[in-house]
Amino acid sequence: MQNTSKVNSPRPDWLEGSRVILSPGKSRLFYNRHPWVFPGAIASIVGSPADGSVVALLSHTNKFVGWGIFNSKSKVRVRVYSWNPQEKPGESLFRIRIREAILLRQNLGMLDNKSGCRLISSEGDFLSGLTVDQYAGWLVMQVSSLGMGQREELLAKLLVEESKGIIAPKGIVVRHEKSMSRLEGMEGEDKTIWGEPPPEQLEYMEEGIKLLVQPLTGQKTGAYLDQRANRREVGRFAAGKTMLDAFCYAGGFGLQAAKQGAISVVGIDQSEIALGLAKKHAELNGLADRMTWTRADVFEELARREEAGESYGVVVLDPPKFAQAKTAVEEALRGYRRLYTLGMRLTESNGILVVCCCTGLITWDMLENLVEQVGAEERRNIRILQKLGPSPDHPVAASCRESAYLKCLVLHLGEKSAPRPSFSPG
Ligand code: SAH
Q1: Is domain 226-413 given the CATH code 3.40.50.150 in the classification?
Q2: What is the per-residue pLDDT for 343?
Q3: What residues in the chain have per-residue pLDDT under 50?
């Protein structure tokens, strides 16, 4: 007997349009909801998908794996946005993703019209290539994939509709990081995409501190929101202490420390613009009398201060990313080693050293090993008090843990030992 239902059922959507077929043995990762398909996993492409168009991702046996957006110019040939055959990337799916992202921040109590908060965190919100930060009702979109770039207007519209009644956005600007744009083969103009253009500088609150942000010209989307909870946490250790805040940008760690009772704070950064902001922040919060700012290369400045015999109760080292690729990890570790050595020498007996690392390729283990080794070389007893990651408005998808990057170790450094005797152990 003929099975009529099978004969009459239409071919599913995902067997109709352009599709990317995975090589045998390569599907597991994507069934497990990993969002990045590199060329090495692809056996063939059926149809001729335009860059930025939606494709179905299928196993080598033509089983549905997911829906993604194709880009022949990017190393990430397909970014996957959905693992449900009924949820094709488009207005309705993006609306669901944006709604879920906003709900999460709302539930965390981080969303209001005064503070700063990351609203959308790319892979962490299953929207690879889209980051959105919120500063007192102004939204800054950062687009880092061609697919998201082509849909900027739609995404802005959805952000407005889904955040209405929660933060009532005033305006949205869109920004494109140059290096990512090059890798994705896209061109984008930084501009106001919806609503009022924001003032060049606007004010928002972070854990009781007033901060200014330049949404169109500051680094990244203007501020480093990922360290929000860590700044407050580290500030706790600074009451009654002196602090050195190296790579201070706009003063984030130092300001919290000063607010929580630090006697004095020295901030060091090489960027004049960042230090200009830091100075303003100190004044705005009535903390200028205990904060000084030095424009210098951190490595040189720390060495200079170490030679001058200085030491501090709390030292924070929050450098930028040191390695973009695996080949650069060795050199990055040498950089961290040098920094930790200087940092330990500048931390007084029973003081606190905070080392932050935003190089995703460097693992917690590598970091802790380095601390152990440098501690031994510097003859200090080191205790790990806290291991801190990013604030929870920067979630990490369990299926894409390589998008996690921020690691901070809060270390207690024991007594400075007497100098090593001048003989070497036999
Ligand atoms: N701690 C900051 C964020 C730091 S971002 C906060 O809490 O907001 C990294 C900073 O390091 C940037 O401001 C950058 O200007 C600065 N920087 C990078 N390399 C540097 C160097 N060699 N010397 C001094 N500053 C540097």
Answers
A1: yes
A2: 98
A3: 1-5
Torsion of CA 178, 180, 183, 188, to 10 degrees: -60
Pocket test for ligand 1, best of 133, 248, 268, 269 (most atoms within 8 A of CB): 269
Q: Where are the domains of the chain?
A: 17-82, 91-200, 226-413
Q: Please state the pTM of the whole predicted model.
A: 0.90
Q: Locate all alpha helices (DSSP H) within 347-420, ordered by sequence.
A: 364-377
pLDDT score recorded for residue 1: 45
Residues forming beta bridges with residue 407, ordered by sequence position: 357
CA–CA dist 205, 128 (Å, integer): 28
CA 81 to centroid of ligand 1, rounded, Å: 33
What per-residue confidence (pLDDT) applies to 6? Answer: 53
How remote is the CA of residue 219 from the centroid of ligand 1, in Å?
A: 10
Query: 187, exposed or middle or buried, with CB in 10 Å at 0-12, 13-18, 19+?
Result: exposed
Q: Compute the distance between CA of residue 264 and CA of residue 258 in angstroms, rounded to an integer.
A: 7
Residue with tokens 């335009």: 50
3-class SS shares of the chain: helix, strand, coil, % to 5: 35, 25, 40
Q: Of all atoms in ligand 1, which is nearest to the CA of residue 231?
A: 7
User: How many angstroms does the Cα of residue 250 sit away from the middle of ligand 1?
Assistant: 9
